[in-house]
Amino acid sequence: MSTAAAPPTLRRQRRSFVGLWFVSPFLVVFAFVLITPVAYSIYLSVFRDRLVGGRSFVGLDNYAQLFADPKFWDGLGRVALFLAVQVPIMLALALVAALAIDSGRLRGSSFFRIAVFLPYAVPGVVAVLMWGFMYGDQFGLAANLNDLIGSEVVQPLTPQWILIAVGNIVTWEFVGYNMLIFYSALRAIPVDLYEAAAIDGAGSWRVVLSIKLPALRQAIVIATIFSIIGSFQLFNEPNILRTLIPSVISTYFTPNMYAYNLSFAGQQYAYAATLAIVMGVVTAVIAYVVQLRGSREADLR
Amino acid sequence: MSAPTLRTARATHGPKAPRAGAGRRHGSTGAFGRPSTRLTLVMVLFAVYALLPLAWLLINASKTQPELLHSFGLWFSGPFALVDNIHAVLTYDGGIYLRWLANTLLYVVLGAGGATALATLAGYGLAKYDFPGKRAVFATVLGAIAIPGTALAVPTFLMFSQLHLTNTVWAVIVPSMVSPFGLYLIWVYALDAVPTEVLEAARIDGAGELRTFLTIGVRMLAPGIVTVLLFAVVATWNNYFLPLIMLNDPQLYPLTIGLQHWNLQATGVSSDPIYNLVITGSLLAIVPIVALFLALQRYWQSGLAAGSVKA
């Protein structure tokens, strides 16, 4: 790490162990709940439990088995598709909302800000239960909608629709959170830039394209990374919906659900640990690539 | 690995951005022209999308179980049973809902409170002191921001079961106490909001380091601390995956797992659907958290702004 980004105030600071005292309580818990479990999982992933003979060292066999496991690829492919479709839609919606609220051309903008953000405060379980009920053809809004248009088109809880149904719940939960990240970045644009634009006679669209979007670049990179992480770790929404429709959502619908079911239904702890590590690495690599690309494009400008 | 990249982000974005707490603009930005009806209509659609499920929840919490199944979802129907439903939620199965609420509060107070305290101490320490190994600490912690809680849940469960910690309250509380993102936010906030000169002055006056932190640092960091606390509270209140795998005693469940437990009653051999309780229980579970967000709006919006400017 270079010190190029270190704040100038550092030179006034004394080099001593005092700072370490402030950091150490965090580090102790951090080591216990983050570093040790990861290390333990890596250790577990090179062993295998057998009914006969107990635990034995198998090297990278678990990894080889995972990469040849169609259930793993099925789940990974599904979250990759989810990522490619849901994340751009959600972030685009969040961007539109943030720009609209920041535009100064909206009546009651603070109401809209809080209304769009509110779903973030709703527990994921409650969100899925609500949408699950509304999706249902028994007493849900989907049934009402079908009655209204006189057809059976809207069937959110069928195999063809289920990924869209999950995507809608996730979008509903997190669009406001991302909106707030973008909105906060917009609020930080120095006002003299707008004054300069006004003197140059730039219209609203010109201001959005030339001032606001470039200023949002870093916030967009951050929001994208968090959304990528969220997509790869998808668990709560499909797992709760599964209780309504076990035949539509498999136990390996997402990699995380697969890891969960391997541990708790199959007792295959070593294999579950292997899966968790591989997913952690995949997520970190993709997040890193996005960060790298985002920064490089920013530097080119 | 994300440590250097995040700092690069800071370096590229920092100079343009105003320092936190100073020079922040007020009022609307780039206010060009009159209020736009079209824009307002777009936002009305947004608000309807965001609030519709909540309206559905509120309306259906007022219905009895039979009415729930046979009436239009977005309007009231049958006797107004909200009070009866609330009463039923609180007394069902010997009042276990209140037990779940108490558990949730315990997890929130110790988990989110602990996370905020640890992140504040550490963020302040990293921003205001130089010490051996600081860069290594920084790289590790910032790298961990990219590791989501759900990815760690299974490994943590495997380790905790070896230590016989599963199915105890600590299995939920201790992992909730670490918030690398909270630390990052406090660090960013402390760099700007706590001038080193003020700390130097306190030292010259003979105040100890901890005393300086408690009397000066904490006060100046307040908006940042409230933001971290609020988001930690939401994360703990809404936590599902961690308690799901760690706990199997219903007496230890938080509200989220308890509600899903009720929801599951509708399926299976001896099914006893209590959807009206699930819906009313869900409504009661979101009221405190929404109220908290609305009450503390001023704080978290400014605190989050400071973080995202630099992020």
Describe this entry's structure for a reader.
The complex is a heterodimer of chains A (301) and B (311). Chain A has one domain: MetI-like (MetI-like fold). Chain A is mostly helical and 301 residues long. In chain A, strands 1-2 form a two-stranded antiparallel sheet. The two termini of chain A are 24 Å apart. Chain B is mainly alpha-helical. Chain B has 2 domains: 46 residues, no CATH class; 228 residues, MetI-like fold (Orthogonal Bundle), CATH 1.10.3720. Helix content of chain B is 72%, strand content 0%. The interface between A and B is large, with 128 and 130 residues.
Query: How many beta-strand runs of chain B?
Result: 0
Unreliable parts of chain A: 1-12
Distance between the termini of chain B: 16 Å
Helicity range of chain B: over 70%
Strand sequence of the main sheet of chain A, in spatial order? 1-2
- So, CATH architecture of the largest domain in chain B? Orthogonal Bundle
User: What's the structural domain tally of chain B?
Assistant: 2
Question: What global shape of chain B is seen?
Answer: globular
Keywords:
A: 301 residues; MetI-like fold; disordered N terminus; B: 311 residues; mainly alpha; 2 domains
Short précis:
The complex is a heterodimer of chains A (301) and B (311). Chain A has 301 residues and is mostly helical.
Q: Secondary-structure blueprint of this entry?
A:
The complex is a heterodimer of chains A (301) and B (311).
Chain A: H1 18-45, E1 47-50, E2 54-57, H2 61-67, H3 70-102, H4 109-117, H5 124-135, H6 141-149, H7 162-187, H8 191-199, H9 204-232, H10 236-244, H11 255-264, H12 269-300
Antiparallel strand pairs in A: 1-2
Helix pairs in contact in A: 1-12, 3-4, 3-7, 3-9, 4-7, 5-10, 7-9, 9-12, 11-12
Chain B: H1 2-13, H2 37-60, H3 65-69, H4 82-128, H5 134-145, H6 149-162, H7 170-176, H8 180-193, H9 196-204, H10 209-237, H11 241-246, H12 255-264, H13 275-295, H14 297-310
Helix pairs in contact in B: 1-5, 2-13, 4-7, 4-8, 4-10, 4-13, 5-8, 8-10, 8-14, 9-10, 10-14, 12-13
